[in-house]
Amino acid sequence: xxxxxxxxxxxxxxxxxxxxxxxxxxxxxxxxxxxxxxxxxxxxxxxxxxxxxxxxxxxxxxxxxxxxxxxxxxxxxxxxxxxxxxxxxxxxxxxxxxxxxxxxxxxxxxxxxxxxxxxxxxxxxxxxxxxxxxxxxxxxxxxxxxxxxxxxxxxxxxxxxxxxxxxxxxxxxxxxxxxxxxxxxxxxxxxxxxxxxxxxxxxxx
Length: 205
What we know:
By secondary structure, this protein is mainly alpha-helical. The chain has one domain (about 1-205). The protein has nine helices and no strands. It has helices spanning about 1-10, 10-30, 35-40, 45-50, 60-65, 70-85, 90-105, 110-140, 145-205. The protein starts with a helix and ends with a helix. It comes from Limnohabitans planktonicus II-D5. InterPro entries: ExbB/TolQ_transport (IPR050790), MotA_ExbB_proton_chnl (IPR002898).
């Protein structure tokens, strides 16, 4: 590996940094976007049971807030009623909707960075290719034909092109995968939130 880095020259270092960052973001998103952290099993049943016996106390609301990202959205409706018992159903719905936007922002965290890496890596590889070509043409003149410099320029071009694609392709694939996961979680959160909002409205009627 060290020999490849030496052969590729300085343009490969930005690509190495991009690859490390991409791996870190992919690992972080794989952990944070698990269903158990977004919409734990039986969360909705727990929220419904807690409210059927009357307005829940602070401990119950706090526990709901700490039960997955969706729990925070559901708890926001209860918080709105806790702060203002005379709040309208529209006020409760708006509070949950705002919490849902914050949750969506949390779900999409780092995805723009991963998409940027997927877009920039081929360009960085192309930069390395251009640098290698410059070295080739600089070494190949009418009075100075040095095979070693020509080989070095070719290696710089090819290694950077290859590494740029190696970084970009997985980053793009994981970005698209995470986008699908986020969209699925957002749809599930929206369905659960709407059901809970209707439940609260029914209890207050």
